[in-house]
Amino acid sequence: MFCIQCEQTIRTPAGNGCSYSQGMCGKLAETSDLQDLLIYVLQGVSAYAVKAREFDIIDHEIDTFVPKAFFATLTNVNFDDARLVEYVEQANAYRGRLQDAYETACAAKGVTPAELSAPAQLILATSKPEMITQAALAAPNRGDVHEDILGLRLLCLYGLKGAAAYMEHARVLSQTNDEVAGQFHEIMAFLGEDSVDVDKLFATSMEIGQLNYKVMAMLDEGETASFGHPEPTQVNTVAVKGKAILVSGHDMVDLELILKQTEGKGINVFTHGEMLPALAYPEFKKYPHLVGNYGSAWQNQQKEFANFPGAVVMTSNCIIDPNVGSYADRIFTRSIVGWPGVTHLVGDDFTQVIEKALELDGFTYDEIPHLITIGFARNALMAAAPAVIENVKNGSIKHFFLVGGCDGDKAERSYFTDIATQAPDDSVIMTLGCGKYKFNKLEFGDVNGIPRLLDIGQCNDSYSAIQLAIALSEAFECEINELPLSLVLSWFEQKAIVVLLTLLSLGVKNIRTGPTPPAFLTPNLLKILEDKFGLRNTTTVEEDLKTMLNVA
Ligand code: FSO
Ligand code: SF4
Q1: CB of 545 closer than 6 angstroms to any ligand 2 atom
Q2: Domain segments of the chain: what residues?
Q3: Looking at the whole model, is its pTM more than 0.95?
């Protein structure tokens, strides 16, 4: 096992990465090995997809499958070996299908088929134990490679993983694009070639950022076309009496299905984690039994789900061991998510979830509502832009902070709460991702009617933040980097990595990331990123606020 993809990876003086029998997230060595093998076979599929495209052969089923299966290997997504073996076998079958199509097209044109990279040539083992043995070939740190090259390869691999996750989120909202899929396959295939070309690897990381920018635009389009534009909305965050279902993850199509199927059944539906922003979309306001958000970010789920007296649905990341809080019999997984022994739902029927919720007590009491305001995505931000610009011009707003990214349970993450609470009163704080749960129930007041805390939405809604930054830079006729705007990213997993690559590829400078730098980036690579983009790690709140506000 070798996995170093997330912020909580094992760091020791002797070397970084989870490489023993189990990762910090609970992922077992065999599961990790199967994920490596899956990625390797997917790289082979992509290699053939690239070649097949030379003959205008596009297989949409395979274009859908590859990013989706890749998504299963993100942190805290799929811990179920049986499902991973199925993905590996399916990938292998698809690779064969594309190979046949490509070679048939070559034969028809009298062309000799190209010799492809090792992942395209792998002869897959037929049993799980043999697959595990074969996984050594596929380890992300395979070969004897300089640590800087490995770091760059991993930056690309993990960034592309994040983009794959957003591609799948966009796809469920009917947003697909052949060009984007083609570009994705090219990068995936390239990463299977084990390049040692530093310049090409670096350029690829920027390409992944650009690719993800397009994917986030597709996702924004899919969400707003399906559910309308989020609008500022007050959301209850405490218990409401009645039977209950809690919906977590990012997939709002699942939320909608659950809401439709629970109509008139006396069940209240709550959002959890990254599903919170759904409550701001007009389409979801049609459902009076969508009563609010319960709980906070992913790392608290073992306590929060244990206390939730109903059924829980994980539509995407992040899942952690449900046996710890003893709720494995009332949590359900969807799509790419998996936990051994937990019921996995395929298709659009949520009857099992509904029956489970009806069986359970639900909340037997009402709590006094605690309201928070959400819903400042693209349109709402643009509507507020003239007032914001006016307040910047008259000196009432002096600075903007974008505090985005993931949450986690390290004590150092109090940094993000402190940045928000210690930011001066004449500043506005924008949030996105699940990192906001550290402070989104606190009071921040307003500046001349403009709330000081503006929640933009899920981590992928960084697209909205980028649009606002572009609008502000146009209004003030300056570069984004000249705006009084500081970006502080709390990173945890691969979606945050790709959002960072997107921002860097757009030329955004001086971003701070924390609480620790990615362990796969070597000191040399961190130095390059600092020199080129001013990217730096968070230090102390006092120091960072001073620099961000340019206070002497
Ligand atoms: Fe959080 Fe998990 Fe959006 Fe991530 S729930 S950590 S970056 O998967 O997705 O912010
Ligand atoms: Fe370790 Fe993170 Fe990989 Fe889990 S996902 S094995 S914690 S690096």
Answers
A1: no
A2: 11-226, 233-359, 375-550
A3: yes
